[in-house]
Amino acid sequence: MLRKHTVLIIGIVVLGGCATTEPTLKVSPRGVSGAYCAPLFSLVSLPARVPPVPSDLPSAQAPGSERPSALEGLSSESRQIAEIIGVVDLVREMRALEAQGEELRDGARQRLIEVRQHLSDRLMMIFFEVSSVVNRVDCEVIRANHVANALYELRDQRARRYEITAIIGDALIGVVGGAFTIALQQTASGIADLVGGTFATGFGLAAGLTGGEHEFFHPEKTNLLRELWEAPQTPTVFPVTVWRFLNWPLNGEAEYRTRREELIAEWRNDGLIGEPGKRDRRATLVFGAGGTYEIDDLYARAQMLEVVKTSLSVMGQYLYHLSQEVLHHQQVAVR
To answer: What distance lies between CA 144 and its chain's CA centroid?
Structure first.
């Protein structure tokens, strides 16, 4: 009889081994390698057509400093975005021609049409650039959330296996211990109880401590978050106009100097990265080439990218203001 119960105990241990067999992560290799999202493309010659980012906004400069007369009468949003994307000269020329009204000669009328077309084309191109960055951000958010959700499901499967194995193993060991007691084999019964308690405790702890981690990469040359963190003078990931918008000085009443600094502060306030001057494990992951991510790290990366998207949506609204006020002569109400 002892031999039979010994075989039963061995069978339970084998059952535990089957329960700990690693489930597979249901994620495409492209989803973790960084090849899932297409790179951003921008015009290389663009920097030559726009002035450098100023140290202060014109509105925050000393009294008496001149603002471009072409921007008078426009909203603050339109004035700012016109300077950022470098269309002040086009706006100036277009408004000067329009001011002549019926006195425009044929050559001037043709020039007005050309200027309006150039301005319209420029605005459309910037809209496409902003849309391109938003799409890339969305792709990276989806990629991080997809891997995080897959890891969460994998962790849940492991935990359920451990819990079921602990319950079944504990019950079967109880049967063995009872059988030994009935057979008056107290020593064997104690051994069975000890094995059962250890077995149940081990798998119970495993169920509670089961984690989820996996390799997740994003090449540094295409890492949007890295560029925002390091703030290079010339961007290699963001289009130049989008980069100028994110680093354009805010007015004197703003809590932060630029939108980029505002983004980083929001990451910290939300607990997504550590304190200033400290580069913790998560910061090393998200601002580098990647590595072994835990589930919370992946969700944090997705949240950080969502914060970036809020600033990009603001830029889109500013472009809309400018197009309506300059091309269609309509004042846009801010709601």
So the answer is: 8
Tokens encoding 1: 């009889």
333 — phi, psi (to 5°)? Answer: -80, 130
Domain that holds residue 309: 27-46+126-151+212-327
Looking at the whole model, is its pTM more than 0.85?
A: no
Q: Identify whether the C-beta of residue 115 lies closer than 8 Å to the C-beta of residue 94.
A: yes
In a domain, 15, yes or no: no
Helix (H, G, I), strand (E, B) or coil at 214: strand
- Name residues whose C-beta falls within 8 Å of residue 146's C-beta, 6 or more positions apart in sequence: 27, 31
Residue type at 172 in one-letter notation: L
Q: How far is CA 179 from CA 1, 195, 301, in A?
A: 9, 15, 55
Looking up tokens 């650039």 gives 129
| Residue 185 lies inside a defined structural domain of this protein | no
- In the chain, what is the straight-line distance between the N-terminal and C-terminal CA atoms, in Å? 83
Q: 151 near 214, Cβ under 8 Å?
A: yes
Q: What are the backbone angles phi and psi of residue 232, rounded to the nearest 5°?
A: -70, 160
The total domain count for the chain is: 1
Confirm if 119 and 96 have CB atoms less than 8 A apart.
no
Per-residue pLDDT of the chain (335 residues; tens, 9 = 90+): 445 445 445 554 544 555 455 555 555 555 566 566 877 765 554 444 555 555 444 333 333 344 446 678 889 999 999 999 999 999 999 988 888 877 777 788 888 889 999 999 999 999 999 999 999 999 999 999 988 888 888 776 665 665 555 556 555 555 555 554 555 555 544 554 545 555 445 444 444 444 578 888 888 788 999 999 999 999 999 999 999 999 999 887 778 899 999 999 999 999 998 877 666 889 999 999 999 999 999 999 999 999 999 999 999 999 999 999 999 876 655 55
Residue 293 located in a structural domain: yes
Look at residue 310 and tell me if it is in a domain.
yes
